Fold each of these.
Amino acid sequence: MDASAAKLIGAGISVIALFGVGLGLGNLFSSLVKSIARNPSAKNDLVSTSMLCFALIESIALLAFVVAMIILFTA
Amino acid sequence: MVHYTRCTRELLHGYSNIMSDPMSSFMVKQIVPINVCGVDISITNSSFFMLITVGIIVLLLWIGTGNRGIIPTKMQILTEKLFFFANDIIETNIGEQCTKVFPYIASLFLFIMVGNVVGMFPFAFSFTSQLVVTIGLATGVFISSIVLGLYNNGIAYFRHFCPHGIPGYLVPFFIVIELMSFVFRPLSLGIRLFANMVAGHIMIKVIAGFAVSIAGVAFVSYLALIPVAINVLLNIFKLVVCVLQAYVFAVLSCMYISESLRPQT
């Protein structure tokens, strides 16, 4: 296989991690909505905690992105 | 058929390296070469923007606290808001000992936040998109947490590698797993900030590249407004991410440091 074609395929494979990130983010925000619906007075605490969790989950997606960029843009 | 107008062709020629390779804008360039005894300490665009960031913070705090009054000026309100925001982060995560580490965490938070936002300006260099800067900051937090833990708890600090109440045959595995997660803390802290900044910048540049290439096509060049509109929204999102990542960095370093301030039993 041509090396440049293998690079493109590898970059595509490396973002499969977004599957788990999607699951995680969906889970996080569905539970956020559910808990705000149950106890609306706790909204401020819940939103700040979930923003922290959001950033932690998102960092996995960005790691996959960095791997893809390393595969694409390094010789 | 693609017909480029002359103006767009010149534009494309000027920005060709940004469009073909969005990573080229993260290149560190020397501005003032300084070489002391074979060690390169020259002023690069990265360190130049760090100086600008520190200047902005110092100027903001200086003006904000310059003429304090019962009726605050706008700058004083901004400064107080920043102060209490940082104070809230540290107080909720560390508790009563928060005044000890307040200067360190608050200056980290302000430095990262203002640096991220300064990097958003056109032609500015975002120094938090350099892995060496972010991992350097994270290593400072890591080392200070170890030193504080050893200072407060002595050799008992190492007891937190082994949680209480686990069966005896699991202890070696737990120690190895805890040690791994402990060692990779500065890496994950630094790479999170770095990857967020780099990903946002590359996304904005790639979509700006779409706008330039659509504008070069005859008859449908007005469609270039679509990527420009997307870019406006992305810039707003990126500003949120800038502040959020500084917040996350501050919260996580608070958590790491609070672990070593707590007495180990």
Amino acid sequence: MNTKTFSIGLVFSLLLFACGGKEEKKEGFSVDRKKTTEKTVESTEPASEVPASQRITLDNKGVGPIKDLPLDPNIDQAMVDRGAALFKTNCNACHKVDKRFIGPSPKGIMERRSPEWIMNMILDPQLMVEEDRCAKDLLVEFNGAAMANQNMTEDQARDILEFFRTLN
Amino acid sequence: MKKYNFILTILAATALISSCGNQGNNNSTGALASSAAEKAYVAPGEHDEFYAFMSGGYSGNITVYGLPSGRLFKEIPVFSQFPTSGYGYSEETKPMLNTSFGFVPWDDAHHPDISQTNGELDGRWIFINGNNTPRIARVSLSTFETEEIIELPNSAGNHSSSFITENTEYVVAGTRFSVPIPQRDMPINEYKGNFKGSLSFISIAPETGRLNLDFQMIMPGFNYDLSHPGRGKSHGWFFFTTYNTEEANTLQEVNASQNDKDFIAAVNWKMVADYVKNGGGTKMATEYAHNVYDEHTHTATSTMKKEVITVDPTEVPGAVFFLPTPKSPHGCDVDPSGQYIIGNGKLSADLTIHSFDKMIAAIEGEKFDGEAYGIPILRFEDVLAGTVKSGGLGPLHTEFDDKGNAYTTFFISSEVVKWKLGTWEVLDRQPTFYSVGHLMIPGGNSRKPFGKYVVAMNKITKDRYLPTGPEMEHSAQIYDISGDKMELIYDFPTHGEPHYAAGCPADLLAPKSKKIYRLDDNKHPYAVTSPDQAKVVREGNEVHVYMSTIRSHFTPDNIEGIKVGDKVYFHITNHEQDFDVPHGFAMIGQNTSELLIMPGQTKTSVWEPKKVGVWPFYCTDFCSALHQEMQGYVRVSPADSNVPLTYSLGE
């Protein structure tokens, strides 16, 4: 059955190549390949059924330098402004506020992740991907595009976090 | 059972051998007893104790090795185009190789020297000479990048260079070939008395390292071969070996070897510098390039200078003297105390050591033995401190340890000879493989040598390694010199032809080695500091692509509206801020090299598309798991097409 499908596909591709010289617009070929979520054998957590980007992990503080980070109920606008500027320079290449891009959108992230987890992810993404389950699953969900360590200081990461608090 | 016994016997025997070996260590004779391998071995993940910077000779560059392992860390492009990084190909670095002869993409790099404070290595910069088209370069030892190149007018075969005075006041460069000064059309055989040799004193700004050709001494038409500064008590003086005092202009092999003695020229540069500072010297019209790379704009600029101050040595009485030295001396080395000046007559078996104190006494007593072109010649016997009768042949260069010993290479007899300063007694000799040129002890030409290892750099490799056809890399040997006897511990190939080298303790440089360029310090005029600034701008037939990169995409990655005949500038800013994440950029059919862009850096590459089509570009450095996805397309339309200029990412 599989072989047969493959052969048909092959013929189809050959046909496409043969038509290559003509001017008419090609739509290309499409294969119905649903993305399968990685199911690792040792995993027993039911949470892995939900894509990591949609999982709520507010109790998870992640791994890294930030252990506990209580937030003031009031948002500090000066920090937000600095954070927005830093986000634009250091994060925007992969994270867009209005859409999923190379990585997830930060919009609504405060409803899904703890402040500590966000800070740790910014400050040491490599350690997080090695040791934090959610970070690891996100890497897989986003095609293995590893988050870059942008060498932010803790203060800079904190400003970015404050900016995230305004994205709901 | 039998087998068990056998193993026990072996174990016992091994134990015996091991314990014998330990005792043998004291004598440090024989490779087995002293475990040479252990001394050169730096375990995986461990760091070397010393950096070694070797000149690349005809590669034009500097290679950086670790000692004692002999591992190659990096090649620093200096005088030669280097496609690995795009140096000399990128728009920013092309000006570095500009000269009064136009763009010269190569040179012959000979003698690196590290900056000093109070006669000790300070690890700020390393300097090196371009021998062929006379130039001096300054390389930063925090970025390991070439920051400045200054051309030298009136010089030819810039060989007795680039040596640093003990507080990095000057980098000094002497000419090997004497030439007409100023250059003019004249018969070659009228050399004698008409050709001149220039000695250039290039001042170094203490904070920035910025070079300035302060003055040139216009000396008699000899060949100025090598040089070293005085130090300690002789600080303020500079010593140059000369040969061809015969002033021959042909068949030098014979004609420049007629005189039994040539000279070491002793120059009181402090006196000459004061003379120039007080308005002395003559301004001469000339032309030379001065190229400076700015670490913040990541861009070099080249300026053509039009004038140089020349000094006639006879106009500054008491500033220059000639010390007779036998047999066409080559190496010119000064011991850590500054007392002894060693001239190695390369056609001699012996080493000649002059005494600085005796030289001063002879000058003060005005005991002259005639003059050459108005420059007083001191009497050989009056300045001689001693002679090392080594029995070797062809002495070239000498370095020093911190225990009062000197180490001299012998080219013809292929050996390093260790001898004692003051007693001139030969203490040890070890063969090299083969025909050794320079040798290097870290700090071995300063007031504070680190006398643990000496590296001998050989001219001939022959059978040392697996053969690789007629052309082979040169071989180097490293010897442990911490004991009474030198011990050969390792042997490794080196790139190009290392002449001299400079070394220093790793902890002088490693802590301040730059890891990234900060994006917020990037002052490049075409940088984009956030991806939303990425754009493509047409100015006539020039197109400027302001592009950013991060793992693993280019912004933008689809560009349309480029036409055949356009000149497309790709200005690429790497937005990574993590150590060791460069991105590359290569465009199909480009008539130049790829770029390798460090984190936070901007580099520019020009592409002149010649063919209609859709042409890909990609990242050349394996940057992440999605590196193979890091690519883009440029649509090139006919010259007269109306395809609008557009650019995008992910649309």
